[in-house]
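Quick look at the format.
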Amino acid sequence: MQAPRLFAALLLSCAGQAFAAAPAYLVVDHSTEILMNQAKAQTLWDADLSPKLAKLYPVKKWGFVTEVEGGFDNDKNCVITARTMMMPRNGKTLSFKPAKTATTYGVQSASSLEQCQALAKTKLSESISAVRSALLKN
């Protein structure tokens, strides 16, 4: 009588693992807080994660650093620099040995803080896409 119960429990535990979320890359964000934060950067990175990328560059061996810097000049122009770097993992941290880097720049004249934040998000998304494309092309 115990065997059917144990078998059912085993099937349920395997089913839960089959539908578990795919592991995510370690993403460390070093941005100007007013423009970008860790949660937004992780969301942008996870938005279009390719299974092929995770297969070629395992989550346990690689991670990414994102940076968005900039702000307003005297004429209220929003100036943004966004960078994404792929780094090897050293356990739970990243080693600063960039394997692939992409940087994007943007300027928006006479902009508000919200418009500047939107530009920052767009430029970081472009740099993430550039790194992904370069990695999948090789």
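Next, a different chain entirely:
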Amino acid sequence: MVRVLLVDDQVSYRRLLARLLRTNGFDVVAEAGTGREALLLAAATAPELVVLDVLLPDFDGFEVARRLEAGPVRPAVVLVSGRQRADFGEFADLVLVRGFLGKDEFTVEALVDLLAEG
């Protein structure tokens, strides 16, 4: 089972996504609402995958991914956002980032496909 950390400041979306992932065989080990909380939980739980919202209240998902990449826990990262991929410019230069999914297009199948590509 893939160990997952979910990071999104919208509690209702995070809970829905956690339920969807658990139903499909993922082990959601923790949930975070901020970048700082995500980094602390990543260090404590050592997830294999971080599903990471781009827009967070303290710093953005790109910064969280950069800090994860520089640290001892180096999970795969899938960025999610309510905005379009083109709105953020180039993000793929981060090694840990496996891909980007819009919140409106997020499915377990799309996530699995991104993970299989890496």
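Strands lie at 3-7, 27-32, 49-53, 76-81, 97-102.

See the schema section for token definitions.
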